[in-house]
Design goal:
Distance between the termini: 49 Å
Number of helices: 11
Strand content: 15-25%
């Protein structure tokens, strides 16, 4: 049998996409990373002042009110990130390593990690697609042998954090755009996610899998999605 014939018979590897927060890690990681940094940046008067402003806005329920007026906005997330404006990349990166060790590793959803590792062992094309931040997701990907990830990015210029995201937040419609770019070279796609906000993407893929803690989700059952329940 010729090599060309063999390549024709062999199935193409699946494109297997994992959400990160609530799927591979048991909590929402983006704001928690910033909060982790703030707790370790007590020497910065600017960080302490910005944190007080955020606490006042939260106490006054400004973010909740704004979210009612403009649903699905990410103003709160952007304001949380603003606290890191002016912090050197080296400091943020050191804290990302500490965050990975102290917060992410102890809170891995082990059944999903095993599934991810099985896909890697099967030579599937595994990718993480997340609204979490690249500064720590890259550490997770490197540690567990994931070659591709697409995520929201913290903007650094001249070695300092601008307090903003670089480009678009990898959420909602932007997540769909990222998926469409990934799918160009894939004939079969699988997506693991815990969130109903990912419904548009779950409905696009060939094999949607909803990840749930403790009990099945009605919104997933109503659509006959496969579910993985972990405790």
């Amino acid at each position: 049998m010729s090599l060309r014939s063999l390549l024709t018979i062999m199935p193409e590897p699946k494109l297997v996409i994992f959400d990160f927060c609530g799927t591979l890690i048991s909590f929402q990681t983006a704001d928690r990373y910033v909060d982790f940094c703030v707790r370790h940046l007590t020497e910065s008067k600017q960080v302490r002042l910005k944190h007080r402003i955020i606490c006042i806005l939260e106490k006054l329920k400004c973010f909740k009110i704004y979210n009612i007026v403009r649903q699905h906005n990410n103003w709160h997330k952007r304001m949380i990130l603003w606290q890191l404006k002016g912090i050197p990349f080296s400091r943020c990166d050191d804290l990302a390593h500490l965050y990975f060790e102290q917060e992410l590793l102890p809170n891995i959803v082990q059944p999903l990690l095993k599934i991810m590792q099985q896909h890697i062992n099967n030579n599937d094309r595994v990718c993480i697609l997340s609204g979490g931040y690249d500064i720590y997701i890259r550490l997770f990907a490197q540690h567990f042998g994931v070659k591709e990830f697409i995520s929201s990015k913290i903007d650094f210029r001249n070695g300092y954090c601008t307090g903003k995201m670089q480009g678009e937040d990898c959420m909602g419609r932007n997540k769909i755009t990222c998926y469409q770019q990934l799918k160009k070279e894939a004939s079969y796609t699988v997506f693991y996610s815990d969130s109903p906000s990912d419904l548009p993407l779950l409905e696009l893929v060939d094999e949607p899998v909803v990840v749930s803690k403790d009990y099945a989700r009605e919104w997933a059952a109503a659509r006959n999605f496969k579910q993985i329940i972990w405790t």
